[in-house]
From TrEMBL:
One of its GO terms (cellular component) is plasma membrane. Pfam families: PTS_IIB (PF02302). The keyword DNA damage does not apply. GO terms for molecular function: kinase activity; protein-N(PI)-phosphohistidine-fructose phosphotransferase system transporter activity; protein-phosphocysteine-sugar phosphotransferase activity. It comes from Alteracholeplasma palmae (strain ATCC 49389 / J233). One of its GO terms (biological process) is phosphoenolpyruvate-dependent sugar phosphotransferase system. Residues 1-98 form the PTS EIIB type-2 domain. Keywords: Kinase, Phosphoprotein, Phosphotransferase system, Sugar transport, Transferase, Transport. This is PTS system fructose specific IIBC component, putative.
Length: 99
């Protein structure tokens, strides 16, 4: 399974990166290919390509601010906060499997 995740918080300092790391660890443990785009204080890091989006089976949005979802049309999207990703990243991946 290929999953894209976007992590974002208004300050773009700690929570963005901690959430990304928690998702990365959970994906690795589950054998899921994961690409993460981080919306941080310095801008967007790891900007997704059209090809990566096309190949993704699902999208996880772990954000405390608005994230434009128009580029993910027709994709399965699971949403949560950075706190959700930090405290229980596995649950976000389980939502993908349930939907």
């Amino acid at each position: 399974m290929k999953v894209i995740a976007i992590t974002a918080c208004p300050m773009g300092i700690a929570h963005t990166y901690i959430a990304a790391e928690a998702l990365r660890k959970a994906a690795y443990a589950k054998g899921i290919d994961l690409i993460i785009e981080k919306h941080a204080a310095l801008g967007i890091e790891g900007t997704l390509t059209e090809e990566e989006i096309k190949d993704a089976d699902a999208i996880i949005i772990a954000a405390d601010m608005h994230v434009d979802l128009t580029r993910f049309k027709d994709k399965k999207i699971v949403t949560g906060t950075t706190a959700d990703a930090i405290s229980n990243a596995d649950a976000l991946f389980e939502k993908i499997e349930l939907e």
